[in-house]
Amino acid sequence: MTQETLLELFKIMGAASLVTIKIFVLTLVFGLPLGLIVSFGRMSKHILITGPIRFYLLIMRGTPLILQLFFFFYFPHYVFGDTLPRFWAAILAMSINYAAYFAEIYRSGIESMPRGQYEAATVLGFSKNQTFFKIILPQVIKRILPPMGNEFMTLVKDTALVSVIGVSEIYELATDTMSRVGSLIPLIMAGTFYLVMNSVVSKCCSMTEGKMSYYR
Question: In sequence order, what are the residues at sequence separation of 6 or more whose Cβ sits closer than 8 angstroms to the Cβ of residue 32?
Fold first, then answer.
């Protein structure tokens, strides 16, 4: 591959990386709050709530994400006679999938908080909402940042799976180019892009963890 070809490929991959970043960001935007809601349902004492939640968690964590991508893309066609746009089908599948993992991380963090924290907040006159959002949640976030960081980095790599339903991003571009030019360089460049993005994610998580060190 010539220097001009490499430069052109780099520009194309840079543009394709924006799709990967969009998938990553939108999955977090929808998956993180959904995961928190699911964690509350998981901790509920009502079987009518915990039963469906447990089933959902089992399905999402017990089946491959690649199958879920196919399901959310093709299911609307068989039920409603139409399909979702490929990009939004990918966002839906990944958000619902990752929400299940986020929910269990949230739950482990919330349940690890000493009961005395709640009792002390009650004595001080805090409401349940104030206790959770002002006292418990900041400490929970600090505790769950390491496992959340692992999930964030996994999410960056899992964006490559959306190519199976025709969403064009870095991995699909790299494999198409590799087969066309007969070189591993496009694949190596794609790996470099993923590595850089995960380095940024790791750095952001470390900085956030440092800022949250106030909460013990």
Answer: 99, 102
Look up the pTM and report it.
Answer: 0.88
Structure tokens of 207?
A: 């900085």
Would you tell me the crossing angle of helices 3-42 and 137-158 to the nearest 10 degrees?
140
d(C-alpha 72, C-alpha 84), whole Å: 8
Please name the residues in contact with 146: beta carbons below 8 A apart, sequence gap of 6 or more.
205, 209
What is d(CA 102, CA 96) in angstroms, rounded to the nearest whole number?
A: 10
Query: In the CATH scheme, what is the code of domain 3-214?
Result: 1.10.3720.10
Which residue reads 């964030």 in tokens?
152
Beta carbons within 8 Å of 107's beta carbon, 6+ residues apart: 39, 42, 43
Q: Give the C-alpha separation, 44 to 150, whole Å.
A: 27
> Where do we find the tokens 């790996």?
191
- Of 45, 39, 54, the residue nearest 148 (C-alpha): 39
- Residue 21 half-sphere exposure toward CB, CA atoms < 13 A: 12
For 1, 92, 127, 141, 152, the CA distances from 147, given in Å and listed in that order, are: 41, 22, 29, 10, 9
SS3 131: helix
pLDDT in tens, 80-104: 888 889 999 999 999 999 999 999 9
